[in-house]
């Protein structure tokens, strides 16, 4: 399989390159500004460039991870441009739990988006367009992505706040963290499977941002009690990933397991 990965210099994109390389996939990384060996420059906001790059690469599959949280053109229109140019390639679109608003019970795959942020609205718009254009595409919603080497945004934030920088973790912000390796492996598995439509690829354990930060701090030898916290606005957004997990060989681990010291 010839695979095009957009956003290949991002946290998830880099992990996908590593895991795909282990599977001897013919890999073409797409980057926006920071060049990668064997890669192609791609600005997903430019429909003509997206079309030309995909025609040149002729991928069998595309995993679309590229986004810019505060930019509708990149996050929403960029995903649409990729879908329009896919030309029969198997498409896996990485979406987010931000397509939903807060509630006490977990969201399942069949539930319609109800975003409360511009980023969530952009991802929801992309989901809707992709599903309409390519019903056989996979839309993979995920949650906070954590790593093992401290490079994720959440891990870096723990280190900054533990060092005394301004800020705090919200105790009312609940998510279902996932390890980047588990997520990348699951996306590659979905790419080569017969599964279509909405999938939820998030961790099976719901944690507050403070609880997650404390687990990261313990793993990294920091004092978890030194992390500042405030209640903040209630924001409980959980993804029920049981159905998707039943389709996968990849096991999505809970954060308390993959962050164990």
Q: Give the beta-strand count.
A: 14
Low-confidence stretches: none
Gross morphology: globular
CATH topology: Rossmann fold
Radius of gyration: 18 Å
Helix content, binned percent: 25-40%
The main sheet orders its strands as 3-2-1-4-5-6-11
Kindly, what is the distance between the CA atoms of the first and last residues, rounded to a whole number of angstroms?
A: 37 Å
Number of domains: 1
What is the mean pLDDT? 96
Which homologous superfamily in CATH is the superfamily? Answer: NAD(P)-binding Rossmann-like Domain
Structural class: alpha/beta
Name of the CATH class: Alpha Beta
Encode the helix/strand succession as letters.
Answer: EHEEHEHEHEEHEEEHEEHEEHH
Work out the strand percent: 15-25%
User: What is the correct CATH architecture?
Assistant: 3-Layer(aba) Sandwich
Write the layout of secondary structure elements.
Elements: E1 2-6, H1 11-22, E2 26-31, E3 40-41, H2 47-57, E4 61-64, H3 72-85, E5 90-96, H4 118-133, E6 138-142, E7 145-146, H5 153-162, E8 169-170, E9 173-175, E10 178-179, H6 180-191, E11 197-200, E12 207-208, H7 209-219, E13 229-230, E14 235-236, H8 242-247, H9 255-258
Parallel strand pairs: 1-2, 1-4, 2-3, 4-5, 5-6, 6-11, 7-10, 8-13, 9-14
Antiparallel strand pairs: 9-12
Helix pairs in contact: 1-6, 2-3, 3-4, 5-7
